Amino acid sequence: AILAAQRRGEDVETSKKWAAGQNKQHSITKNTAKLDRETEELHHDRVTLEVGKVIQQGRQSKGLTQKDLATKINEKPQVIADYESGRAIPNNQVLGKIERAIDVRSRSACVLRAQ
User: Fold this and answer.
1) Model confidence pLDDT, tens digit, residues 22-50
2) CATH assignment of 47-100?
3) Which pTM was predicted?
């Protein structure tokens, strides 16, 4: 119908769809870039060093290595290392498994700190 109207000389209004036929569904916005940089306004909370020390002391009192504790709670050894060093983003399920494995309440200390 559009081609027929153009052949007759009638005015036909057309508009191009944005990114039609291209794979541009996901664009990076300024907010995404800001979150990636973890500025002061947008950041992820981390486990405090106090909690990390409590986990480390409890693990050592049981005579467990990081690998042993990780195996016991079905997590990777890097997860335990991240919690003990304060680099981990807190996960209540993981913290609960660690607490049960070493019989220590690590969350009673201040759990979160803004970095």
Assistant:
1) 555 555 555 666 666 655 566 678 888 89
2) 1.10.260.40
3) 0.58
